[in-house]
């Protein structure tokens, strides 16, 4: 029987660079993870495409998905719902493929309860002032939203102790390299002793 894939969860405070790091990982041709596209009630930003960046839903549609138990996890973040489609994740893991989630910390906590064997990676900024700098320079938020995200960030950073690995996002390329190395190492650590390795010993 085929081994199940690994569920990789990348989380961290808003503005740390989760989206940037995730996009960089998925732009690399040798990346073998499957990205789980989230559902959200947030309005699309300029250039965002439905079904690529997110599945954009109305609040009513999202609440129906919650009632029908179609979400592995969901959270309300700065006034909008975000959630992970459960069928896609389970099916893809069953096909033996690694699934990559990029989600905020409340959702990651729910995933940990349902998938304790997942690989949980927390992205940290080099400093709080650099975090603020990133949120401000991204230019997508109002002043209210920036302040809200920053006060949430301190509580979010507290949660890093619940994770398997903490990765600093000083530079995007460094963070991606660290994440890729962690996944490779975890695969080696988790691989059961396969019969073909034991056969190799018998033959010697
Ligand atoms: N819980 C949860 N969080 C999500 C999901 N998809 C995205 N997020 C998180 O929601 C937060 C807000 O996302 P977004 O509005 O795209 O803004 P940005 O990531 O801060 O640029 C980020 O922390 C995302 O990682 C999801 O399916 N579930
Ligand atoms: N390593 C980094 N160094 C400098 N700026 C970064 C880095 N990673 C991300 N950024 C910038 O920080 C801002 C927030 O990144 P984003 O990926 O939207 O964060 P998140 O998804 O965690 O909210 C963006 O303007 C992005 O270009």
Automatic annotation (TrEMBL):
Q: Where is the Guanylate kinase-like domain?
A: 5-184
Q: Where in the cell is it found?
A: Cytoplasm
**Which reaction equations make up its catalytic activity?**
GMP + ATP = GDP + ADP
GO MF term (any one): GMP kinase activity
Q: What is its EC number?
A: 2.7.4.8
Keywords assigned by UniProt? ATP-binding, Cytoplasm, Kinase, Nucleotide-binding, Transferase
Q: What's the top EC group for this one?
A: transferase
InterPro entries named among the record's database cross-references: GK/Ca_channel_bsu, Guanylate_kin-like_dom, Guanylate_kinase, Guanylate_kinase_CS, P-loop_NTPase
What superkingdom does the record give? Bacteria
Q: Which Gene3D superfamilies match?
A: Guanylate Kinase phosphate binding domain, P-loop containing nucleotide triphosphate hydrolases
Positions with a binding annotation for ATP? 12-19
Give the family, as the similarity comment puts it.
Belongs to the guanylate kinase family.
Q: Which PANTHER family match?
A: GUANYLATE KINASE, GUANYLATE KINASE-RELATED
What this chain does, per the entry, is described as:
Essential for recycling GMP and indirectly, cGMP.
Which NCBIfam families does the annotation name? guanyl_kin
Protein name according to UniProt: Guanylate kinase
**Gene giving rise to this polypeptide:** gmk
